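Postdoc handover notes: sequence design on the structure in folder B. Input tokens:
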């Protein structure tokens, strides 16, 4: 694990399974229907026991219709060590000319703003859009880390960080953080 002091807060990068983290909130890389899926979304649904989380997600969708890319919604953490799950939808990579950068940045910033609204002070993110949605990882890491830095500088949370699945991803994100933070 590596960390950086940002403002009065802390930005961390670690390797592991986000479902095991003891933080106020973990973030889910969801889809617009909050319907569950593979990747980290599947892992989070399995770790919560699925049924209660599915019910909470369906309630949100019946209220708002769908969760657009870049937006965020919150549910209980149910059986997880984390108290809450913040669901956000990253952009699908279409080559970078469809507003992907802004949508990815918004996914991080809107998650941090929703955290603030719910008095969440510690939050962990997966590499949103870096799996099935195909975002180039180095570019995504720059956008994500700068968004977390901005949120910490604004005092939205006290601790925010990334949990990377696998050593290759961890090393790339840690090296990117060394370059830009
Ligand atoms: N802990 C931390 N990171 C993980 C874990 C885990 N347990 N499992 C996977 N990752 P993806 P996306 C990493 O595909 O690209 C779903 O089906 C993984 O290695 O989960 O935003 C949704 O329902 C990768 O780096 O999310 C959507 O339909 C990162 O998490 C769609 O996939 C994100 O990969 C969202 O695609």
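Designed sequence:
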């Amino acid at each position: 694990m590596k960390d950086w002091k940002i403002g009065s807060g802390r930005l961390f990068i670690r390797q592991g399974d986000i479902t095991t983290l003891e933080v106020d909130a973990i973030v889910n890389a969801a889809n617009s229907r909050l319907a569950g899926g593979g990747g980290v979304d599947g892992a989070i649904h399995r770790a919560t026991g699925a049924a209660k989380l599915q019910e909470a997600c369906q309630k949100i969708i019946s209220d708002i219709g769908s969760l657009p890319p870049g937006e965020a919604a919150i549910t209980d953490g149910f059986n997880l060590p984390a108290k809450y799950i913040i669901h956000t939808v990253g952009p699908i990579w279409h080559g970078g000319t469809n507003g992907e950068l802004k949508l990815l940045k918004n996914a991080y910033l809107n998650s941090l703003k929703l955290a603030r609204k719910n008095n969440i002070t510690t939050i962990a993110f997966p590499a949103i859009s870096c799996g099935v949605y195909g975002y180039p990882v180095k570019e995504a890491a720059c956008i994500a880390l700068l968004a977390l830095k901005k949120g910490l500088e604004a005092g939205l949370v006290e601790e925010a960080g990334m949990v990377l699945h696998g050593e290759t991803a961890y090393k790339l994100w840690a090296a990117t953080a060394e370059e830009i933070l």
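Context for whoever picks this up: Strands lie at 2-6, 9-15, 25-29, 72-76, 84-88, 122-125, 159-164. Don't rerun without checking with the PI first.
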